[in-house]
Amino acid sequence: MECTTNRAGAHCGFMSKNGCTYVAGACFEIVEKCEGCDRIAETEAGRFCAVYPYPEMKWQRGVCNFATHVKPELPRTDQGATLNPLKAAKRASRGR
Ligand code: SF4
């Protein structure tokens, strides 16, 4: 449905006929780490993320996976080569 709170007019999955169903009844503003991202939506109510209602939470476990301005760091070997994260997880589960 169309948002009637912070991002008025934008389509949002959290909107219902009874209003915003997200935690605080509206989405949260972007955080400093979001600066430079193409997904920032500026509205009269402030600056919000166009794809996620709680940007601060997206940065709590590293780089936001929706970010357009930052790429996540790939794990590296002792020699400096990048590791395939899937293969690294497989190796770790085998205990090597
Ligand atoms: S996609 Fe991530 S980095 Fe970009 S504005 Fe949204 S929360 Fe911030």
Give an overview in words.
This protein has 96 residues and is of the alpha+beta class. It has one domain (15-94). It is built from 2 helices and 4 strands. It has helices at residues 55-58, 85-94, and strands spanning 15-16, 19-20, 40-43, 46-49. It has a two-stranded antiparallel sheet with strand order 1-2. The chain starts with 14 loop residues before the first strand and ends with a helix. The structure holds iron/sulfur cluster. Iron/sulfur cluster (SF4) is lined by residues 30, 34, 37, 39-40, 49, 51-52, 55, 58, 64, 66-67.
Compact summary:
This protein is of the alpha+beta class. The protein contains 2 helices and 4 strands; from the N terminus they run ββββαα.
Which structural traits does this protein have?
96 residues; alpha+beta; two-stranded antiparallel sheet; two-stranded antiparallel ribbon; 15% helix; binds iron/sulfur cluster
Topology of helices and strands:
Elements: E1 15-16, E2 19-20, E3 40-43, E4 46-49, H1 55-58, H2 85-94
Antiparallel strand pairs: 1-2, 3-4
The structure holds iron/sulfur cluster (SF4).
Iron/sulfur cluster (SF4) is lined by residues 30, 34, 37, 39-40, 49, 51-52, 55, 58, 64, 66-67.
